[in-house]
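Sample intake — pectinesterase
Collected from: Triticum aestivum
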Amino acid sequence: MECHRVVSLVAVAVVLLLRWPALSSAQAPVSRTITVDSQGGGDFWSVQSAVNFVPDGNREWVRIHVRAGSYTEKVIIPAEKGYILLEGDGSWNTDINFNDYAGAHVRSRGDTSPTYKSATFTVLADDFIARNITFKNTHNAHDKINKSQAVAALVRGDRNAFYGCAFHSFQDTLCDDLGRHHFSDCFIEGGIDFIFGYGQSIYDGCTIVSNMPPSYGQNPGSVTAHGRVDASDPGGFVFKGGEVRGTGRQYLGRAWNEYATVVYYHVNMSSIIVPQGWEAWKADGETNNVVFAEVGCTGPGSNMTGRVPWEKQLSELEVEKFVDMSYIDDGWIGEQPY
């Protein structure tokens, strides 16, 4: 019996040893840490200076730690500077902010959209992570009467992830533009199309807050505006858990194009959601290919009695396709550094 017990313990130990390296080695190491401190106690005073220091063609994870403070600057992560981990001292302590709006930019032929130019923070690189930091566009912080597109963050890289981050603006807060993205435990605040773009993203346990003022009366805003153009295009916003709350009235989404795709899964919805739920917008009259759906949601705003007749009723297999992490993840999330 004792011999059998020893053999069993050795077998268990071997199994654990075999498993442990596989788990630990999958997580990528951070090659170095750069510190940003607005008071001068770090390697750089500004976030952009730290980003510029990362070499072009970088292939090793670099942590840029931004110490508590408010950093008033526009920041761009260029396409050639991948593998950056941007880390704050908590979204309530560390923010990057700027006051800009689309109307301040003139668009010439072939130029970038003025809306995109308004972004406080822009990610063009693949393999980017942000943790525990806030991105703000302060243009519409107080006066929401003269509204304008004012982007807090524009996310255009593939394999981009945001953990415990916050995004604040009013119109077009978060441009989830292109690529596969993971937003986990984030706070996103806005009033009109405040999560928009063509991205393929999962919003996991996020808090979505409407800041529509009473002066707008019964004119609803829209939480999302997804822009998928064709059936062959990737893309779709999936909200898993979390909540939608705030002030004013909101559509869950409006279709920017005829293949717009948005799914709410087990989300708690407050009474700010209008009964019809969705707006056809640019897909008006062509809603057959729009995939707008709700599954297992709760709260007063989840009452589907008055929903538009073209809202999709998904099968279990279709739901699984959207809510499983494989929708965005082929292994890249598990390989991220912490």
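Post-analysis note: The longest strand covers residues 30-36.
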